[in-house]
Amino acid sequence: MNMLKLSWKYLIAKPLNTGLNILLLALGLAIITVLIVIQDQFESKMTRDAQGIDLVVGAKGSPLQLILSSVYHIDFPTGNIDMNDAMALSRNRLVKNIIPMGLGDNYQGYRIVGTNYDYLDLYNAQVQEGSKWDKPFDVVLGFEVATKLGLGIGDNFVGSHGIGSSSHEHDEHPYTITGILQPMGNVLDKLILTSIESVWYTHDDDHDHGKFEESVAKTGFPETDEDREVTSLLIQYRNPMAAVQLPRYINSRSALQAASPSFEISRLFELLGVGVKLIQGLAIVIIVIAGLGIFIALFNSLKERKYDLAVMRTLGASSGQLFIHIVLEGVILTVLGAIVGILIGHLFIGILVMQNDQGAISTLSASVFLVEELWIIAYAVAVGIIASLIPAWSAYQTDIAKQLTKS
Amino acid sequence: MLIAKNIEFSYQKDQKFNIPDLTLKEGEQLLILGQSGSGKTTILNILGGLLKPHQGEVFINGTSLYGLSGAALDKFRGNNIGIIFQKPHILAPLTVEENLKLANFFSGKDGRKNENLLSDLGILHKRKAKVNTLSEGEAQRVSIARALANSPKVILADEPTASLDDVNAANVVKLLKEQAEKFNAVLIIVTHDQRVKDHIANQITIGGEA
C-alpha cells in the first residue's frame, strides 16, 4: 500500500464519476493535441515543400492560388502563360534558376506535372527504380503514387484532363512509366512527373509522331518553333536584391503575376489563425469545465470521506499525508485525462487521414508525437493540482476527534 | 505504561469533565463505564492523542503524547495506539487486507503478522472481501484486526459492542481481551453496555452511577 495506490483505490471506487471527469478533460486536451499536431505538420510540410523556391510566376489571378497549385499542388492553376514571356524572364540578370511547369492533367487524382530535371534537383530527389524520363510520354512516379496505384516500371496509363479524378481521358497516347522516385516525405511523393513536351503533345489535336521519338529538354525550356504555353515558373533569386526588384518588375507586366511562397503561406496561416484561435478558446473552456468538474467531484466526495480521513489519522496518517492523498487523486485524474486526450487526438487525425487519401490532409501523419505534447501533460497536472488544492486543504484540517464523535 | 495526570477538559466553560487520574501497567485492563454524555468518548480521545486536553498530560511508554508535534504524534499514534470505534469504519474502497496494510503503511511497519491476526479473529477467508460484503460482526472484527495491525502498546475501544447482538458482543470482548493479553498491551474499553461488565474486573464509573 502506498499513497498512489490509496488514491487510485478511491478513484476506481467511483468508476462513473472518475470516467466522466477523465473523458471531459481528455476531450479538451484532444482538441489541443489535434491543433498542435496539424499545425506543426502543416507548417513543416509547407516550409519543406517551398524550400529553394523564392518566387512563383504564373498567370494573373489569386497569388495564394498560384502558390497552392504550383508549389503544393492542392489548388487549381490560375491559367497558362506564354512561353516567350517566360523565356524572356529567364534571361533576367536577377534570376539564378528558373523551372517551367506544365500542369492541368491527372491520373486517378494524382497530378501529372510537366517539368524538367531541375525540379527533381530542387528537392534532391533520386530515382529509386528505373530511370528519369527521356522521351515524350515517359513518366516518373512519386513513391506514394506507385505504391497506392500498384504501378511499376514499363506500365502504361492514360492521363485525364483536369486535376480532379473523374475528368475526361486523353485516349490518344498513353504514358509509359520509366522510373519511380525514392520516398521523399514531401510533395513529390504524390506527383507524376514528366517532361513539358508530354503535356503539350497530349493536348495537341494533330499528332506528329516524329516528335515523340526525340529526346526532351532536361533543363531550361524545350526548344520549339511553335507558339507554346507553360503554367507556371519556379524561380530562385540570384541575390537578395532580386527579392525587392523582381516581384515588382514582373507584376507590372500585364500578362504575368509573381507570388512569394513564404509571404503567401504566412498570409494563409494568418487567415487560418482566427479559426485556430476560436477552436483553442473552445478547448480551453472545456478544460476549465473539466477542472471545475474535478474540483466539485473531490469536494463532494470529501464530505462523505471526512470519516475515512479521520480513521486514517487514527491509523497514523499525518495531515500532510491526507493533503497529498487528495492532491494525488486530482493529479491521477488529470494525467489519465491527458494521456487519453493525446491518444484520442492522434486517433482522430488517423481517422481523418484514412478518410482523405488525397489532398492536403492525406500528408498528415497520426503517429508523429511532438515534444509539445509533454507540455499538455504538464498543463494537465497543473489543472489537477489547482482543482484539488481546496479539497486537499480541507482534508488537511480534518479535526479527528470531532469527526469521529459526530458519526 | 499508560499514565494520565491532572486531565481537565471542557467543551463549554460551565461544563467541565471530571477526568480521573489513571495509571495502568503493561497487560492491565480497564473498563470505563458511564452513561451517554458522561464524557467517556472524550476521555478515550484524549488518551488516544486525538484531542488535546486543556490541562494535564498523558504518558504512553514514557512519552508525553501532547509533547509531540503534529506529524510526530500521528506517527506515534499509528505505532503505539490501536483504536476501535463503535462502528467498524472500514475504508470501503479497500479490501479487508488492504485496510490492514494501510495501517502498516502509515506507521511504516511491514505487516507480517496480518494473516495471523486475521486468522485469530476468524476472518482470514474474508481477506480479499470488500466491506459491503461483510456482516456487522465480521466488520467489527476487521476493525479490531486493523487496530492491532501495528502491534500497539495500548488498545482503546469505544463502545465496541454497542451495535452487536449478545453472541457477537461477547465474542468481541473475548477477542479484545485475548489479543491484548497476547500483545501484553494495555486495554481500555469505554462503554455503557452492561453486557461487558462481567468480563473485566477492573472498572471505574464516571459521570455518576451507570
From TrEMBL, chain A:
Residue span(s) of domain ABC3 transporter permease C-terminal: 282-397
Domain (MacB-like periplasmic core): residue spans on this chain: 18-203
Pfam family, one: MacB_PCD
A single GO BP: transmembrane transport
Protein name: Lipoprotein releasing system, transmembrane protein, LolC/E family
Compartmental location: Cell membrane
Chief place where the protein resides: membrane
Membrane-crossing segments per the record: 20-38, 278-302, 322-354, 374-396
Sorted UniProt keywords: Cell membrane, Lipoprotein, Membrane, Transmembrane, Transmembrane helix
InterPro entries: ABC-4/HrtB_transporter, ABC3_permease_C, MacB_PCD, MetI-like
Membrane topology: Multi-pass membrane protein
GO cellular component: plasma membrane
Species of the source: Cecembia lonarensis (strain CCUG 58316 / KCTC 22772 / LW9)
TrEMBL record, chain B:
Transmembrane regions: none
A GO molecular function held by the record: transmembrane transporter activity
The ABC transporter domain, residue ranges: 2-210
Keyword ATP-binding annotated: yes
GO cellular component: plasma membrane
EC number annotated for this UniProt entry: 3.6.3.-
Alphabetic keyword roster: ATP-binding, Hydrolase, Lipoprotein, Nucleotide-binding, Transport
InterPro entries per record: AAA+_ATPase, ABC_transporter-like_ATP-bd, ABC_transpr_LolD-like, MacB-like_ATP-bd, P-loop_NTPase
Enzymatic class: hydrolase
Signal recorded as keyword: no
PANTHER family: ABC TRANSPORTER ABCH.1, IMPORT ATP-BINDING PROTEIN
The protein's name in its UniProt record: Lipoprotein-releasing system ATP-binding protein LolD
Taxonomic source organism: Cecembia lonarensis (strain CCUG 58316 / KCTC 22772 / LW9)
